[in-house]
Specification:
- It is built from 22 helices and eleven strands.
- With 480 residues, it is an alpha+beta fold.
- Among the domains are: 135 residues, DNA Methylphosphotriester Repair Domain; 74 residues, Endonuclease Iii, domain 2, CATH 1.10.1670.
- The strands form three sheets. It has a five-stranded antiparallel β-sheet with strand order 5-9-8-7-6. A four-stranded mixed β-sheet has the order 3-1-2-4. It has a two-stranded antiparallel sheet with strand order 10-11.
- Helix 3 packs across helix 7, helix 14 runs antiparallel to helix 19 and helix 18 packs across helix 19.
- It is globular and about 65 Å long.
């Protein structure tokens, strides 16, 4: 819901009804109290004349309103105001979530996105209602409130984990915003789990079974485990565990050697599990297609799995070229066993993290049992990422991203589109020549040619990546 599309009377009707469909789409500021709330807030509905409506928590906060302690805007699905935004703003919001403005500038963020800083500020003003810096400040504050409410971390660790430079500054900001000291915002009934447990909200529905199916089939031995309804994985700084929670959130349990990077880790998890998708809007669009209507109805809430780490996922895509998912999984297991980084504190079944680019560049990965050309592609990607750590960051548009990826030897259209979907979050990438997609698009016993499928997919823009996920799952379901 963009700034210009906020119709006060429509927003007020949704507020009076406490309509969950609008949760995260706008926030209500009450001028008589100075507080802003989610549309689902259980408090008594204020008078219409006392309400002002904002497209994001950040814009409400920038206007001088403080977050409600009852409905907790920090747990609204998605980062403030992401719904309906253009690709550039959506990418910027994801990078802000992962800490892009914690030490970097708006100018540097704009350069990463391939636009001018002036253009980026204009887009934010039009679509979010405030500046990138205001979004970062609001995100930092709301994330701190989330940590105070949901974890038993010491206040000092919460301050630094949320990106505050000092505990004194943190205490001042919290007191000025909420009128209370940080310790007064704590939840005294929390289970003293040694792990850091957090709620990861999303907009329902969510097909958790399909997500687990995807992760289970690709779980790398020693680095990932899927047991029952739970996914666990290791990385250099610790271990994360994700499991289903109540309606509208997943549970995250984190074991971290250093809590300073927690905001970035939560951002990674949101990207991996595609928690910020406006899934109802996407499915309404795809369901209008005769080919996809039944497929979408079969799996409501199907998400596009993202990437925990861009380099890792890109390497896994290269390993999977022209072989089965199981063969690629086994090959990745060999790679991790030989070149992975051992964990300082191993967990059950988790002993190492994915190899760094330096480890793969300086060794002959071809001895693991892959074609020499594929080994050269892995070396080329490793070299590119070492030379430019932002090599796998999105640039201005899909075509630009695909062109950059295909500049690497051994990366063709299929691999480039796959990486664009999983790593770059390109919602419109679509590898039309993929055999699984062609099988999934079979109708009346006839499988389309790649060019036919590409033509059909034009009607699915800008959500072709979600159409691809539905077709892949249909192909899988048909085989079972």
């Amino acid at each position: 819901m963009e700034v210009q599309s906020l119709e006060p009377k429509r927003c007020y009707r949704a507020l009076r009804a406490r309509d969950p469909r609008f949760d995260g789409r706008f926030f209500t500021a009450v001028v008589s109290t100075g507080i802003f709330c989610r549309p689902t807030c259980p408090a008594r509905t204020p008078k219409f004349d006392n309400c002002a409506f904002y497209p994001s928590a950040a814009s409400a906060h920038a206007a001088g309103f403080r977050p409600c302690l009852r409905c907790r805007p920090e747990v609204a699905p998605g980062l403030a105001g992401w719904r309906g935004t253009a690709n550039t703003v959506r990418r910027a919001l994801a990078l802000i979530t992962e800490g892009a403005l914690a030490e970097g500038s708006v100018d540097a963020l704009a350069e990463r996105l391939g636009v001018s800083s002036r253009h980026l500020r204009r887009l934010f003003d039009e679509q979010i209602g405030t500046s990138p810096s205001d979004v970062a400040r609001a995100h930092r504050l709301l994330f701190a409130k989330k940590l105070l409410s949901e974890t038993t971390l010491p206040v000092s660790e919460v301050a630094f984990a949320a990106g505050f430079g000092s505990v004194r500054r943190f205490n001042t900001v919290i007191k000025n915003t909420y009128g209370r000291a940080p310790r007064e915002l704590r939840n005294g009934s929390l289970d003293p789990d040694p792990r850091i447990r957090l709620k990861l909200p999303f907009k329902p529905p969510y097909d958790w079974g399909a997500m687990l199916h995807y992760l289970r089939g690709r779980a790398i031995d020693g680095m990932e485990v899927v047991e029952g309804e739970t996914y666990r994985r290791s990385f250099e700084s610790g271990i994360v565990e994700i499991s289903p929670g109540g309606d509208g959130f997943l549970w995250g349990a984190l074991e971290l050697a250093d809590t300073h990077a927690m905001a970035s880790i939560v951002g990674r998890l949101r990207r991996l599990f595609d928690l910020d998708a406006d899934i109802v809007r996407i499915e309404q669009h795809l369901a209008s297609s005769p080919l996809l209507s039944a497929v979408v109805a079969r799996r409501p809430g199907l998400r596009v799995p993202g990437a925990w780490d861009g380099f890792e996922t890109a390497i896994r895509a290269i390993l999977g070229q022209q072989i089965t998912v199981e063969a690629a999984r086994q090959l990745a297991g060999k790679l991790v066993a030989r070149y992975g980084t051992p964990l300082a504190r191993p967990g059950a079944g988790l002993v190492c993290a994915f190899p760094r680019p330096e480890a793969l560049l300086g060794n002959d990965v071809g001895t693991l049992g892959m074609p020499a050309s594929r080994a050269r592609t892995i070396s080329a990607l490793s070299e590119a990422v070492i030379a430019d750590p932002d090599f796998l960051a999105p640039v201005s548009d899909l075509e630009g991203n695909l062109k950059r990826l295909q500049s690497l030897p051994g990366v063709g259209p299929w691999t480039a589109h796959y990486i664009a979907i999983r790593v770059l979050g390109e919602t419109d990438a679509f590898p039309a020549s993929d055999v699984g997609l062609l099988r999934g698009a079979t109708k009346g016993g006839r499988r389309p040619a790649p060019e036919e499928l590409a033509a059909l997919a034009e009607a699915w823009r800008p959500w072709r990546a979600y159409a691809a996920q539905h077709l892949w799952m249909k192909d899988t379901d048909d085989d079972e």
